[in-house]
Design a protein that fits this description.
The structure is a homodimer. By secondary structure, chain A is of the alpha/beta class. The first copy, chain A, has helices at about 10-20, 35-40, 65-70, 75-85, 100-110, 145-160, 185-195, 220-240, 245-250, 280-295, 295-310; strands at about 30, 50-55, 90-95, 120-125, 130-135, 170-175, 200-205, 215-220, 260-265, 270. Chain A contains 11 helices and 10 strands. In chain A, strands 3-10-9-4-5-8-6-7 form an 8-stranded mixed beta sheet, with helices on both faces. In chain A, helix 3 crosses helix 5, helix 4 (about 75-85) runs parallel beside helix 5 (about 100-110) and helix 6 (about 145-160) packs across helix 7 (about 185-195).
Chain lengths: ~325, ~325
């Protein structure tokens, strides 16, 4: 029931993902069972192609996350996280209340030992056809410098495990490229990124490099990252509205990527846009499957175990 | 000699501004006199159409601002601010070293009493053909909440005096529109903006409203504002490069506005882009003339005198 266009977009997306998901995997639909069955019937899709978990309650977009989660254990979000924590799901995706998704992740599957705060990331299409990663895009608005270093480590592993980049370059999003530039936060985090043995830090980067494939992972705090992402979305919508489509700009469409992974927690979770379409839902499913299959969470656990013991940074 | 294309772009811009500047005003060129006279001769422009102040020294883009200003009193920037402080100029514009321009403003003409920190602003074209104002765009990266309230007051007066908006609406750039959203800085400044009697605060605004003319003045701190502006410039260049011109996007061209006014100081100062073209230089001159003629600095002085005495905020 997550997102503005549920259940139609959710069901359509899940159905269209089936072929690519592969026979060995099961897509589990969480929501009111009768409604799901009715939607499948209407589409002439066999009821046996999905597992269905009846979730009679619904957390709306306006509800306070923690209160909603505790008062609605029968909601799709609360049920999904319970199943994920118990190993009944390998990955979980929803376009529902994003605060509840984040709170659910942190309270159920919890942060990986050594990770202070979770983060969310997004793919940024590059002019040369490749993709960069921007994080954090909204989870942790006032990130301390040591937390931003963790974002850099987490982003590097995501780029390696999910995007297949062998030795990802990390840049700090800043207002100038010289060392020592920026606000107090950037000035504090710069030397820490430089000293971090777990990443390949290439220095500051400016917004003009956002699409230039100078780095693979662009690190910023959740406030600035959210502003940058929303400005990209604003330009995407303006360009579409004005009929100026183009191979690069068309790739700014969030639907192509699905959603934003919540990273640093003990299982793959993907957070969808409130306006998720069927295409977005399909890609969220495929993205959560990739995150699960490619061993990202185990890799993060191993690295943070080493990181915590080496740097006393648990 | 300021900017990457000086002296050619500076002279061309100054020459093309002459007609609109009007007969009662004098454009003063600051730079090496022989070079200026040679450039004018080459263009067949009468030497008597400008006042020329010989400035044998030059502050380059790489120099440290305060050191350069004290070691090069004969530079155009140091001379311009000296003349401005002594009332020999009504306004001063340069596309030179922006740190030196800012340091020069703060050390020579100084901040208006009651203004804690200067700020710089930029015009943002709106979809409906109007313009909004974004500030601060880089002068004060770690603005305290009370300083951001001052930005809001200064921006409102600029919108009123220079852009002719009768009762400008002020929005706080944020990651959500609900009260209480955002990072700690936004959470702290929101109630202060709401309580400020000198502005018409309409609440938080998101990046999706950047071009929607929902507000006249968009307030943020110098770090976020600089990132937002540089991202706009990035999209402008991408759109141009890909041949997707359009009436709205074409208005993102900074050259049309000239430069960024340094606000909160005791005289009109306009800071140009390093890559200022002749068109940008022309518009910088016209902009500094408008700032001077429309009494912005006096209005700021009056309001901050009242503000300081009312709020104990000197």
């Amino acid at each position: 029931m997550g997102g503005d266009f549920a259940p139609a977009a959710t069901i359509d997306g899940a159905v269209s993902a089936l072929d690519e998901i592969g026979a060995g995997n099961v897509v589990v639909l969480l929501g009111p069972e009768a409604l799901i069955r009715e939607e499948l019937r209407r589409r002439d899709v066999g009821q046996d192609r999905f597992a269905i978990v009846h979730c009679p309650q619904e957390i709306t977009m306006e509800e306070k996350p923690l209160k909603a989660l505790s008062e609605k254990p029968g909601s799709g979000i609360a049920t999904g996280f319970r199943m994920l924590a118990q190993g009944q799901l390998d990955a979980f995706a929803s376009a529902g209340n994003s605060g509840a998704m984040l709170a659910g992740a942190v309270t159920s599957i919890k942060c990986i030992p050594g990770v202070s705060r979770p983060c969310t990331c997004t793919m940024i299409p590059q002019e040369d056809g490749t993709y960069g990663l921007l994080l954090d895009i909204g989870t942790t608005p006032d990130a301390k410098p040591e937390v931003m270093v963790q974002f850099a480590i987490i982003g590097s592993l995501y780029a390696r495990y999910v995007l297949g980049k062998a030795d990802p370059k990390v840049g700090l999003l800043n207002v100038g490229t010289e060392d020592g530039k920026g606000n107090l936060q950037c000035q504090a985090v710069f030397p820490m990124l430089k000293a971090c043995p777990h990443i390949r830090f290439t220095g500051n980067m400016e917004p003009r490099e956002l699409f230039k494939n100078h780095v693979d992972v662009m690190v910023t705090d959740g406030f600035v990252g959210n502003i940058v992402l929303k400005e990209i979305e604003t330009f995407y919508r303006l360009i579409q509205k004005r009929g100026l489509g183009d191979p690069l700009f068309d790739r700014l469409n969030y639907e192509l990527y699905g959603g934003s992974p919540i990273l640093g927690v003990n299982a793959p979770v993907v957070l969808g846009h409130g306006i998720s379409s069927a295409l977005a839902v399909k890609n969220m499913l495929l993205q959560s499957k990739r995150m699960s299959e490619q061993g990202l969470v185990d890799a993060l656990r191993r690295l943070f175990a080493a990181y915590a013991s080496q740097d006393g940074n648990a």
